[in-house]
Amino acid sequence: YLYTNQTTKPKATDSRRLAKFERYDYIIATNELRKRILADSGIAAKKIFVLGCARYCAEWLDQNQKILPAISNFKPSNSAKLKVVLMPSKPQCRVDVERMINTCRILAKLEGVEAMIKPHTRTRNQKHVFDNIPLPDVSHALTAELCDWADVLINVGSSVITDALMREKPVLYLKYLHDNTTLFEELGACWTIHNEDELKHALGSLKADKTGVPYGEANV
Length: 220
Fold this sequence. Notes:
The protein is built from eight helices and seven strands. It has about 220 residues and is of the alpha/beta class.
């Protein structure tokens, strides 16, 4: 859980959270932020326990690397271009869809950049939003192998940003594409991009130096 604002999508209300979770004796939360959001909704804090997230445990990332070669159907290119993958959040999470599609058009036209998109896996009935995106849709590929393949991860509001940061990949966070705020931008643990011109400048800079990011290891 990474959203620091209260209303992240139309159905994210205190009353809905209370109705959903109050019936449980114990609730396992991935981080202190999620615990606070639930407690602020009226759920007793004493029954909420923060245990972290196994998906982003270093032991699991190592084990997953051993599993991937046997199940992968992703056939990446060996292009000399800057390899970029865009992983947006769910459209219902206050995303500016029209501007996101325009951003995809920009990525598709950038010289020296090979860009792909993996729509959020829980897009559900809004999947049609991505039908005419001018980028290769790599929904069939596993997130872990895309993070391995890419030189740069572009993110809107998905926790996959954690996976990329743990692999020491540059992360561009497209702040301008949604109306939420995230833990990562508040911690300064990513390259926060405020408009399309900043995106083009950042990618141009990373083509010259893939390690040149304006955030530090301590923030990550």
